[in-house]
Every structure is written in structure tokens, then in C-alpha cells.
Design brief:
The protein is mostly helical. Helices cover 76% and strands 0% of the residues.
């Protein structure tokens, strides 16, 4: 049956009306992936020298054992963001005398054909053959390769399980990403434990007790079986539909939005769109990751000597969601944009909903970044002033450029290596978003009034917030002039 399913998939690909476009995209992706794999191979053959240079006081094999868990944690985080779910149109097969185990088995098997599963094999196999086999024999090297393969399979199916669960409830994805981040923080910042020490202990014992290789292999097999059972239980269309409805309902019932009436309903629908679809959800995840952006700047003495550099983390941390999600503002609704044009929704309310969404998420991120006051009160001042700037000016700029973005986005596609909707508008958008605050900061800072420069930025942002109704009217007027051009662009597939 596997060969039959594969033939059906190939026929569906070649018979698609977008075959030419899809084929060109896959060729470009294949070239990029091949280039990345070649880079991985280069690193693999010099891995022993890299470890020796990075850890000169430690033997190479213990140093190698100590980095393995770091790799697999980073690998899992990368898979959650980039790895695509294997798909199969199951509807035609459910009414045929085909065992469900065959359908589920095909989906589970194709999940192994991911380029992410090649990386650890290419990266670590040369080291085990070159160093571990030479020092401890071929049997120990084989045990290491089997352990790496077991953890690779475990990561593969764990990431797919989390992503499938998150399709029913978007909070699952955020919780999983948050747990991985907390694991890293507990090691590097709180020093509750050492991942490197745990990794060195576990993999170091493989040399003395090779039977321990059964542990990662059993973990991989158990995760495969759990993923298999989940797919089999959810292969019935009526069950998938009922579960989605209940999960989506519970994931967007935010009591705070009830106070905003009809505008709150629009924001709730926008939150549903974000949590249900991979690419807009990635914008939310990126905004959470950027909360740690300040650790790069505020802990580095080189950056502390330049106060103006503090604008960069302040811009990104409090406004990255506005930038990453807002640059495709109307494109997210491309599939039902014609319905918006003919609906009873006043476009002013539509814009107010966008402003409210940006305000809620930016306010949450600003509150979560308040602990950076540990590095100085002027940092909190910079964050607050840029928070006002982002809500007042950058939000307005983003919505202004949204009226000039005519490229649709297909929400059914994944987020990884997806440039759909990207055009010249996004490139031009970055200039006013990044340069604008410095046009106020540099003249005042040149005379030594750095704190006053931050305050001036915040005052300008606050003025735009207080005059928001005026800007909404201007944006509505601008939209009415371009609404049909936007709709025509969104209809082009």
C-alpha cells in the first residue's frame, strides 16, 4: 500500500494546476537544502578540532558527549518551528476496503523522510567513525550511532505530535516552546542544573555499558507508537471536526475582549486565525523569543558604552509582533477578503480591531520585559518610550503599508521557507520602522540629553495614540481608494 499511496501523491502533484510553480519552488528548496547539508558535512569532518578548540581543557570524547543533549534540544525547538507535517488526502480512502493501519502507517513512514533526520546522521557519524571507533572500537561507535538515531526518531515524532495537538489547540505549541525555553534558562541563567553535565553522564556511560543504548531506542519507538495511535484515533472526519470546534472555542474565550464589544469579537477572530495557522502563529512565537533579545545587548559591556544601541532591543522586544505580523496585515485575510468588503463590518471597526490586537500583545510583551530594569532604570525608560512609539507610530505605518500590499497568503501552507506575500512593500516598510526613532534620538543625544531623547520619542508616540481616531479616518480613506486593487491582487493565485 505504501507504493500505491506514493503513486497517488505523485499523480496529484503532476496533475495540479500549479505544477510548474510547485516544481520550481521544490527545485530551489532542494538546492538550498543540499547547500545546507554540504555545510553540515564540512562541520562534521572538523568536529573534533572544533571541540578541541572550544574546550581545550577537556578530552574530545567527553566534550562530544556533553554537547549531544544541547543539540537535540535545539533540534526539537527548530523542528517545532520549521518541520512540516506529512499530509495525505485521507477522505477517498476511508470509504474503501483499506485498513486504517495502512493509511496511518504510510503517514508515519513518510514522517521519517524529513531532511531534519539527515542532519544528526551527517553531523555525528564522521566523528564516531573517526574518533570513537579509533579509541573504543567499532562496537562502541555503533552504539553511539544507534543512540543518536533513537533520539532523532524521538525528536521527529515528538515534534509531529506536538504540532498535531496544536492544530486542535494553539496553546499546546506555545506551552511546548515555553517549556524548552525554560529548560535553557534554568541551565544558563538560574544554574539549577547542567544540561552539559547530564549529557556527558548519559552518553559517557554508553562506553562502559553499551546496553544503555536501549533507552534512546525505546524512547524513539514509544514516541512513534504514541504518534501512530493518535493518528489512528483521529482518522475519522466527524471526530476531527467536533474536537476542533471545542478546542478553538476554548482557546479564544478571553474575558478581557468582552469589554470591547464588536471590536473585541473581531480581535477574537484574529486570535483564532493566529493560533490555528502555522505562519501567523510563527509571528507570535517570534515575538516571545525576542523577549530574550535584550540579554545579547544588556550583558555585553561593548554595547553598554553606546546608549543609542538600546533603541534596537527596545524596538524589537516591544514591537516585533507589530512588525512581523503587521507587514502582512490584510494578506492574512486574503481567502475571505471579498467577504469582508461586502459584510456589514465597518472598516473603521476593522482597523480599531487591528490597533487593539497590537496593543494587547505589545502590552503583554512590555510587562514581561520589565525585569530588564535589573540592568538599569534607563533601560526600562527606553522600553516604555519605544512601547508608546510602536503603538502610536509603527502601528499606523504598518497599516498604511498594508493598503499597498496586494499579495495573498495561503494560510494552509507552512511557515518554513515560505516567501509568499513578500514583496517590495515589506522592504520599504523596514526603513521608517527602524530609522524613525533615531531621527528624534540622534539630535538630542548629540548634546548629551539621552534620557530626554527617549522621553521625546515616547511623547511623539503618545501623541499619535491620543490622535488615533484621526489616523483611523485617514487609513480608511486611503483603503477605500485601493480596496478593489487589493481584492484583485488577493484573488490571483
Amino acid at each position: 500500500m505504501i507504493s500505491t499511496f506514493a503513486q497517488h501523491e505523485l499523480k496529484a502533484f503532476w496533475r495540479s494546476k500549479n505544477t510548474g510553480k510547485n516544481l520550481a519552488t521544490r527545485i530551489v528548496m532542494a538546492i538550498l537544502i543540499l547547500y545546507l547539508l554540504l555545510n553540515v558535512l564540512v562541520v562534521a569532518f572538523y568536529l573534533d578540532k572544533i571541540i578541541d578548540k572550544a574546550m581545550p581543557d577537556e578530552d574530545i570524547i567527553p566534550g562530544f558527549c556533553g554537547i549531544l543533549l544541547y543539540y537535540f534540544l535545539a533540534d526539537l525547538l527548530m523542528r517545532l518551528q520549521l518541520q512540516e507535517l506529512p499530509t495525505l488526502r485521507v477522505q477517498p480512502y476511508l470509504t474503501l476496503p483499506i485498513k486504517r493501519n495502512s493509511v496511518v502507517g504510510y503517514l508515519s513512514f513518510t514522517a521519517l523522510l524529513s531532511v531534519f533526520n539527515l542532519w544528526p546522521v551527517l553531523l555525528f557519524t564522521p566523528f564516531t567513525v573517526k574518533i570513537i571507533a579509533h579509541e573504543n572500537g567499532a562496537s562502541v561507535a555503533t552504539v553511539f550511532i544507534l543512540a543518536i538515531l533513537g533520539l532523532t526518531v524521538f525528536n521527529n515524532y515528538l515534534a509531529l505530535y506536538i504540532k498535531r495537538k496544536s492544530n486542535l489547540n494553539g496553546w499546546v505549541f506555545l506551552v511546548a516552546a515555553g517549556v524548552l525555553i525554560l529548560i535553557g534558562i534554568a541551565d544558563f541563567s538560574w544554574h539549577l542544573y547542567s544540561i552539559r553535565g547530564i549529557s556527558a553522564y548519559l552518553f559517557g556511560h554508553l562506553i562502559k555499558q553499551p546496553v544503555l543504548v536501549l533507552l534512546p531506542m525505546l524512547l524513539g519507538a514509544a514516541m512513534y507508537y504514541l504518534n501512530f495511535l493518535y493518528l489512528k484515533e483521529n482518522l475519522y472526519l466527524e471526530e476531527l471536526g467536533s474536537r476542533k470546534a471545542s478546542a478553538y472555542k476554548s482557546s479564544t474565550e478571553i474575558p478581557l475582549l468582552g469589554y470591547f464589544g464588536h471590536i473585541g469579537d473581531l480581535v477574537a477572530n484574529e486570535i483564532k486565525l493566529i493560533l490555528r495557522n502555522k505562519r501567523p502563529r510563527s509571528s507570535l512565537v517570534v515575538s516571545l523569543f525576542f523577549m530574550f533579545y535584550g540579554l545579547i545587548f544588556y550583558t555585553n559591556p561593548q554595547y553598554q558604552s553606546s546608549p543609542g544601541i538600546k533603541l534596537l532591543p527596545a524596538i524589537f522586544m516591544t514591537g516585533i509582533f507589530i512588525i512581523s505580523y503587521g507587514q502582512f496585515m490584510f494578506s492574512w485575510q486574503a481567502n475571505h477578503f471579498d467577504g469582508i468588503l461586502v459584510s456589514k463590518v465597518d472598516f473603521k471597526d476593522f482597523l480599531r480591531g487591528k490597533y487593539l490586537l497590537f496593543t494587547l500583545i505589545s502590552t503583554l510583551v512590555f510587562i514581561l520585559t520589565i525585569p530588564y530594569v535589573y540592568f538599569g532604570w534607563n533601560i526600562l525608560l527606553a522600553h516604555f518610550c519605544m512601547y508608546l512609539w510602536n503603538l502610536g507610530i509603527n502601528t499606523t505605518i504598518v497599516l498604511f503599508f498594508a493598503n499597498r500590499n496586494y499579495k495573498r497568503i495561503d494560510l494552509s501552507k507552512g511557515a518554513s521557507f515560505n516567501w509568499e506575500g513578500v514583496g517590495a512593500t515589506q522592504m520599504l516598510l523596514g526603513l521608517p520602522l527602524m530609522i524613525g526613532p533615531y531621527l528624534i534620538y540622534w539630535p538630542l543625544a548629540a548634546f548629551g540629553h539621552r534620557d530626554i531623547a527617549f522621553i521625546a520619542i515616547g511623547i511623539v508616540g503618545l501623541l499619535f495614540i491620543l490622535t488615533r481616531s484621526y489616523w483611523i479616518k485617514q487609513l480608511e480613506k486611503d483603503f477605500n481608494e485601493k480596496r478593489y486593487t487589493i481584492a484583485e491582487g488577493f484573488r490571483a493565485k
